[in-house]
């Protein structure tokens, strides 16, 4: 790749990574003030769960991804970046000025839709613009931004905690400002060269692209890839999603911590996640076995919840949990999902299939966001924690057993091995392309 292309890739990665910052940032901004909103509006446990369900943590982003992934394939990655941040700005503005539960719910939903729409396009764009030898690093940078969101927002949450609910509104103001900056940078990006080349092929052939839903389930290779990726990401995300939105609530209601103490724990956890992402995944993702790196992160995640569930919420248990989970999340399922989901599908429906998978993953998180507070309230934390351990163990097994061999290879090479020579609008029905063992 030329220096110009490398420069363009770096600029694009930084600009697009702001989407990930805003994704995680809005989740934890809501989470850090969840108790305050509940007290302000007298919310029931069901209403609290509903906020989590429609947010960027669950259904909101699930439906947004379904829409945004299809639009990114049909109209281009740049199309998403031209308009999507404006929707995000509207959503956080509504949350900032919420005077009742209906406004708060609407703001969470709109923000979630925007976040979901941006995620498939962002990971796809970064992967398509990257050199194959630095693809994991670039994806790692985007995940680093995702980790910085909670680290910064929880830290700011501690600073503004004396202001109560007004302080939480200020957190959303900070996200609005970053969103304006992101929109200004992203709307100036060049279009993905891979997408432009694919559109040129389609135009030359006269073929009409099939809907991503049809493409996604058109052959066994796609179905295997979807099952693998959803399995790796969904079971992990059920735990991470509940943590992202409810963990301060758990610290306060189960552990008896103050809001400031809960936010401090989460701030440290996310600082460690950011460090794990940058010095772990981004540094070694292009150099070492994906299977080995994934196993290390997944095993640490399981161990962290074993400690929290059975050792308890003493300060020793809490800090051990924070260190183990924080580092593991940096080299865990989400980073690998972001990488593998862009590698295992052809350009012509890469964004659309990501949208479908993200819909399934965040949709399941939406259901779990309603169930988790009920389990917590009625069956206790030990039962809820044991379920979390089982979910993480399933993700670990799926990722370790079926990790694909994609490191250092171009997207075209991966596609040709898995699908053969694709016609612009047709995936071969019979192919020997299967998930290979990692190096």
UniProtKB/TrEMBL annotation:
Bilayer-crossing regions: 21-40, 46-67, 79-97, 103-126, 138-160, 166-185, 226-251, 263-281, 293-312, 318-340, 352-375, 381-403
Membrane topology (UniProt): Multi-pass membrane protein
Cell compartment(s), UniProt: Cell membrane
Record keyword Zinc present: no
Keyword set, alphabetical order: Membrane, Transmembrane, Transmembrane helix, Transport
GO molecular function: carboxylic acid transmembrane transporter activity
Alphabetized CDD domains for the sequence: MFS_SV2_like (cd17316)
Domain Major facilitator superfamily (MFS) profile, chain residue ranges per copy: 9-407
Source organism, top-level taxon: Bacteria
GO cellular component: plasma membrane
Protein name: Minor myo-inositol transporter iolF
Organism encoding this protein: Listeria aquatica FSL S10-1188
Taxonomic classification: Bacteria, Bacillati, Bacillota, Bacilli, Bacillales
